[in-house]
Write a structure and sequence with these properties.
Helix content: over 70%
Number of helices: 18
Radius of gyration: 21 Å
Strand content: under 5%
Oligomer: single chain
Distance between the termini: 54 Å
Largest sheet: none
Length: 451
């Protein structure tokens, strides 16, 4: 039965976002863990404020047009990500690429929810004071990730995520984000004030806000474009899926600007938390997950009320992680509902059980099963991250630009842009975005490199 015929299990048919709820949910999908450890690393590598300015330019010129395209395709198709292109009026040749944007978030969630579990565990440890009972934070982290406890915290994170998604769009995802996003904003502001008032924080603020244009390069431009693209949750089916739940009266242009602004503000405040803190305690802000789970706990242990602020920081991370896991889970759930005609609760249960099984090798690759820790130079966890982030997601973004620019006859009506803006948008989709997305794909997959 088609969506138009009123299949009650089909996504986008009955349950809808309110205008504010949709924008908060979309912002929630972009507010993730990456801006707390990936953003400082790539910003530090490529010139601080100069790179941040480049990131803003890429977000406006490429990120927002592709974001608008995904939302418009989703709303026009009123289906899951797997069927959005075809239901919006595209050729059947796009169906496999739609399915790819269901597979990618499923794989991402299988390992992302593990890190979400880590943040919940560390929030409890920090508030209880147990995190700071032993100053060897590296050994603590290794003992934790190499044991069975991550399995329990993965289950807790998935249960929380599944509970929200099972309650539906307006009653679950929207209500969740209406509570979490304001709370996250409060935590960001409190932690930013604490960070910028630390002794020696000025050096970190200066690094973040004073540009060094000598470090900009072609490499930096592609990294900035890639981060702008991925920080908006593009290419992974989330916004195609969320678009199916957006009311026809909602202005997608205004929503796109609001979502972009939310993502940018989050990245900016995250920088004003990480860089002053790392500068104050002499920490290199380019150490990936170990920055968050090893280096920063050492910093919190050395500051007044460190257990309190450390707890707030990990609650912030947990909030950011769960807003992303909720968005990621909705993509395969909406597909299962549409494909098999199941109810939402049954679909959530089946998908979450599948995620537990698929995520098991990733958890075991942190030491419990040694051969999973080194498969051709990467752990199983790292391979999943590499394949999704560097191959599947850029392909998804490239397909969106090609579809919107060349194959979609209903683009003008669906985007809802005035004539002048529509011409600029469609020109971007046809001649700028596909070329740049192809360069990002070739760069992230390692086919082209810069010295």
């Amino acid at each position: 039965m088609s969506l138009q015929q009123g299949n009650p299990s089909a996504p986008g048919n009955n349950d809808r976002f309110s205008s504010a709820g949709f924008i908060l949910a979309a912002i929630g999908s972009s507010v993730g863990l990456g801006n707390m450890w990936k953003f400082p690393y790539i910003t530090g590598e490529h010139g601080g404020a100069a790179f941040f300015l480049l990131f803003i330019i890429c977000l406006i010129i490429i990120g927002l047009p592709v974001l608008l395209a995904e939302l418009a395709i989703g709303r026009a198709g009123r289906g899951s990500a797997a069927t959005a292109y075809v239901k919006a009026g595209g050729p059947k040749a796009f169906a496999p690429f739609g399915l790819l944007q269901v597979i990618a978030p499923f794989i991402i969630l299988s390992f992302y929810v593990i890190i979400a579990g880590w943040t919940l565990h560390y929030a409890v440890l920090s508030f209880s004071g147990k995190l700071f009972s032993d100053s060897n934070f590296s050994a603590q982290f290794s003992a934790f990730t190499g044991g069975y406890m991550p399995l329990i915290w993965q289950l807790i994170a998935l249960a929380l995520t599944g509970f929200v998604v099972a309650r539906g769009i307006s009653g679950g995802i929207e209500k969740f984000n209406k509570i979490i996003i304001p709370g996250l904003i409060v935590l960001l502001i409190v932690l930013m004030i604490r960070a910028v008032t630390l002794p020696g924080a000025e050096a970190g603020i200066s690094f973040f806000l004073n540009p060094d244009f000598s470090k900009l390069s072609a490499e930096a431009a592609l990294v900035a474009l890639g981060h702008a693209f991925f920080s908006l949750s593009l290419g992974m089916g989330i916004l195609l899926t969320y678009g199916a739940y957006v009311d026809k009266r909602q202005s997608l242009g205004s929503a796109t600007l609001a979502i972009g602004a939310g993502d940018l503000i989050y990245a900016f405040i995250a920088g004003l938390i990480i860089f002053p803190t790392t500068a104050s305690f002499g920490i290199a802000p380019d150490t990936g997950p170990s920055l968050v789970f090893i280096a920063l706990p050492a910093a919190f242990s050395a500051m007044p009320l460190g257990a309190f602020f450390g707890g707030l920081f990990f609650v912030l991370l947990a909030f950011a992680a769960l807003t992303s896991t909720v968005s990621l889970l909705e993509v395969p759930v909406s597909y299962v509902m549409e494909r098999f005609g199941w109810g939402r609760t049954k679909s959530v249960v089946v998908v979450t059980i599948s995620l537990l099984l698929v995520g098991l090798p990733s958890i075991l690759s942190f030491g419990m099963v040694p051969w999973l820790d080194n498969i051709a130079g990467k752990s199983f966890f790292d391979w999943l991250d590499f394949i999704t982030s560097n191959i599947l997601l850029p392909i998804g973004g490239l397909v969106t630009t090609i579809f919107a620019g060349y194959y979609w006859k209903g683009a003008a009506e669906a985007a809802g842009l005035k004539s002048g803006w529509f011409k600029v948008w469609i020109f971007t989709m046809r001649y700028i975005a596909p070329v740049l997305m192809l360069l990002v794909l070739l760069h992230t997959s390692g086919i082209i490199k810069f010295e």
